[in-house]
Write a structure and sequence with these properties.
About 75% of the residues lie in helices and about 0% in strands. By secondary structure, it is mainly alpha-helical. The longest helix has 26 residues, at about 65-90.
Length: about 280
């Protein structure tokens, strides 16, 4: 599972648009391949080239082993991946095209290797297992189950439920917006004004058109807060994907849209957990 996640992160970095992201993307691809080969061979020490040779030796003759054929097919690629990773580590230079190509090749190699050796399809593994927050995991599993059953509208709804829980909260969780509001209250010079605007009875203090203006002000403040709070946890590519998901435009069909929405929601939840923010979302 972690191998697939590392490859997904590498994929995101390869299109993130900064030299550092390209370097890290190559490291991600190399790490995923190395983990896989170490698990396959049981060899936990030694350099990458020695590991490759051990894997090839274990795979047997290519006349009788599909795994041996696969390793031979990717042999030159694996050497190139290792060379570029070493160069990136010592000289810190990787082009965008090279990063994208190596991550793409790494994903293809891992997918074929896992399917041939372990009879598993990476895209069928459950990302919900990454999550530890009970409510996050429940919604993620329900979304994945809906996808598996081809109930694409239900899958999208569950993914949106997960995002809504994380961002806005419920009776148990305050959500990122609530957490951000606490921080804003601590640091903002307009603490009293902002707190007053966000209170539920703010608009009730006024009459007529002024009440409508006060209500609109509260809604705008909350919308801006929700958008800015959410966006700060996303890189450039993720922001573009998020906006496409929210508008629902540019997707091939309902299945592609549902898969993208579920994947985005679960990976967003996982990021919130890895940042240590999930535990801060609980209401006291």
């Amino acid at each position: 599972m972690y191998i697939q996640v590392v490859l997904d992160i590498g994929d995101e970095r390869a299109v993130a648009g900064t030299p550092l992201d390209y370097i890290l993307a190559v490291h991600d691809a190399h790490m995923a391949v190395e983990w896989l080969l170490r698990y396959y061979t049981g060899r936990w020490r030694g350099d990458f080239i020695t590991l490759m040779n051990e894997a090839r030796k274990k795979a047997g003759k290519k006349t009788t082993s599909e795994l041996a054929k696969l390793l031979d097919e990717y042999w030159e690629f694996l050497h190139r991946l290792n060379d570029v990773r070493n160069a990136a580590q010592h000289h810190a230079v990787v082009s965008e095209a090279e990063a994208r190509d190596l991550v793409k090749g790494g994903k293809e190699f891992v997918a074929e290797f896992v399917e041939q050796r372990y009879k598993l399809r990476l895209e069928e593994l459950s990302y919900a297992n990454l999550l530890s927050t009970p409510e996050f995991k429940r919604l993620a599993r329900e979304a994945e189950e809906a996808l598996k059953d081809k109930r694409y509208e239900d899958a999208v709804d569950k993914a949106l439920d997960l995002l809504t829980l994380i961002i806005f909260g419920d009776e148990k969780y305050q959500g990122l917006v609530g957490l951000a509001g606490q921080l804003t209250g601590l640091f903002s010079p307009y603490q009293k004004t902002l707190k007053a605007v966000l209170e539920e009875d703010y608009c009730k203090r006024y009459q007529g058109q002024v009440r409508e203006l006060a209500k609109a002000l509260t809604e705008v403040a909350m919308s801006i807060g929700a958008a800015s709070t959410t966006m700060q946890f996303l890189n450039r590519e993720e922001k573009a994907v998020f906006l496409r998901l929210m508008t629902g435009e540019g997707w091939r069909d309902g299945e592609a849209y549902a898969k993208a929405m579920v994947h985005f929601a679960i990976m967003f939840a996982w990021r919130i957990e890895t940042l240590g923010l999930a535990e801060l979302l609980h209401k006291e």
